């Protein structure tokens, strides 16, 4: 069973020989970027560089996927925000939104540009997906990600205002989130047409560290349901931070799998959702994978498996400065221990 | 001096205005406090800050979430803006200036703004550099202002890694400057490893840490007042 078969079988709900070790979020490494002699800021703007960098984590370490994009600004940029890729940065800085689209409450009534699929880097992403598939698509599952509606709204307007309005004027926010959902669907459809096997919906901003489970259910869940219903590829719903109180709502969005991070008590989640639910997670990609020892990496992987994850999957983007020996330890431990449960 | 019952009523109104995120009530109560001749510092600490302490508790109990806290902060500022011009410089042996900002690569500033609020309340001079701030700017600003404290915030793992460079540069030039780091991906271990003096992992913890600090100032003030009597 190769990595591709393993991951696709898992998504289908079929038996696999062991848990796979992959991600639906960013996983490029400095090791890979160095070998390719690229500059980090450049890989976001060139389909070939993006695809080659994305493939390098599989090629160097056997990490069982290929995922583009690398940054989180594709949708907001296509909607009309201006991004900053920090072209002059020495180290690694991820692109951010420099200019928002909505500046105050009165500007919230926005429309999706009719040519959204042709704007910003959406075409570049399609090209990158095709290249990535040509390169390693027979060996691993190829994935992409979109933001969740609330997280995208938080890029398009001041997060501060969005949060307050989600309390004071929930109707207005619900309307905006519905527009965000439509935009996200358009982008996701483009990725699907380029041939991705799975799409992760990253609704990082709607964690229970920030919003109450009640607001999540009333405001965030409906547009998430709308998006996931439209997806033909396998879908993974990811939320950061505390999620134990909302995992059942996450399941109500009907993704193929849910993804949680280290703050989630997976034993509890498994109990709540039953044996058939696909739960991906839930190790700390910085404090374990980057700054931890190999021993910590190995013991964490074993704990994730013992707790009942369906796939070893990082809680967020893998930070590129990850030491190569820790990547190797993670893969090795997953292979050794991942079939025992 | 206002009579005790009236004073208590006004302080309670300020406190409740913050807890119930009611800007108008806070404004009204702040004006009443001034009209009644209440000490502005007292109105801030025993009214507004006392309300924020309760908000911190409600957040911890998961009755309040970030939207509520932001609204409470607006209410606090509504009162503070009126009271602050009437504050006497607090003579409690702690006065200071702080440089605060979110590091380059990060555009999140909610936690940073909550911490800033508590410094404003405590009467610090706050140099707010905003968000997405180039690392060297922190060092420059600290040297320029000779601030006792520098606060670095990062919400994303991806932007946090610039922090040790700033800490090193500042400590090299000014070993006595205290540095506090904050944001979801930070931890006590990282703070220790990077040589920072304190940390807060999220907005609520930042708020808690800042409340703790301001409560401590309040205690000093009360003790001093008690000694003087």
List the helices and strands and how they pair.
The complex is a heterodimer of chains A (341) and B (229).
Chain A: H1 3-12, H2 30-36, H3 47-61, E1 65-67, H4 74-79, E2 82-84, E3 96-99, H5 122-136, E4 141-147, H6 149-156, H7 159-168, H8 170-194, E5 198-202, H9 213-230, E6 234-239, H10 247-252, E7 257-260, H11 266-273, E8 279-283, H12 294-307, E9 311-314, H13 324-337
Parallel strand pairs in A: 1-4, 4-5, 5-6, 6-7, 7-8, 8-9
Antiparallel strand pairs in A: 2-3
Helix pairs in contact in A: 2-3, 3-5, 5-8, 6-7, 6-8, 7-8, 8-9, 12-13
Chain B: H1 4-19, H2 23-35, H3 40-60, H4 66-83, E1 97-102, H5 110-121, E2 125-128, H6 135-145, E3 149-153, H7 157-160, H8 163-173, E4 178-182, H9 188-194, E5 198-200, H10 203-228
Parallel strand pairs in B: 1-2, 1-3, 3-4, 4-5
Helix pairs in contact in B: 1-2, 1-3, 1-4, 2-4, 3-4, 3-10, 4-5, 5-10, 6-8
Number of strands of chain A: 9
User: DSSP helix count of chain A?
Assistant: 13
- Strand residue percentage of chain A: 5-15%
Instruction: Give the distance, in angstroms, between the N- and C-terminal Cα atoms of chain A.
Output: 18 Å
Task: Offer a quick outline of the entry.
The complex is a heterodimer of chains A (341) and B (229). Chain A has 13 helices and 9 strands.
Folded structure, characterized:
The complex is a heterodimer of chains A (341) and B (229). By secondary structure, chain A is α/β, with parallel strands linked by helices. In chain A, 46% of the residues lie in helices and 12% in strands. In chain A, the strands form two sheets. In chain A, strands 1-4-5-6-7-8-9 form a seven-stranded parallel β-sheet. Chain A has a two-stranded antiparallel sheet with strand order 2-3. In chain A, helix 7 (159-168) packs across helix 8 (170-194) and helix 8 (170-194) runs parallel beside helix 9 (213-230). The two termini of chain A are 18 Å apart. Chain B has 229 residues and is of the alpha/beta class. Chain B has a five-stranded parallel β-sheet with strand order 2-1-3-4-5, sandwiched between helices. The longest helix of chain B has 26 residues, at 203-228. Chain A binds chain B through residues 84, 86, 89, 91-94, 96-97, 159-160, 163-164, 166-168, 208-212, 215, 240-241, 285-287, 291, 316-317, 319, 321, and chain B through 62, 65-68, 70-71, 74, 104-110, 113, 132, 156-162, 184-185, 187, 189-190, 193, 202, 204.
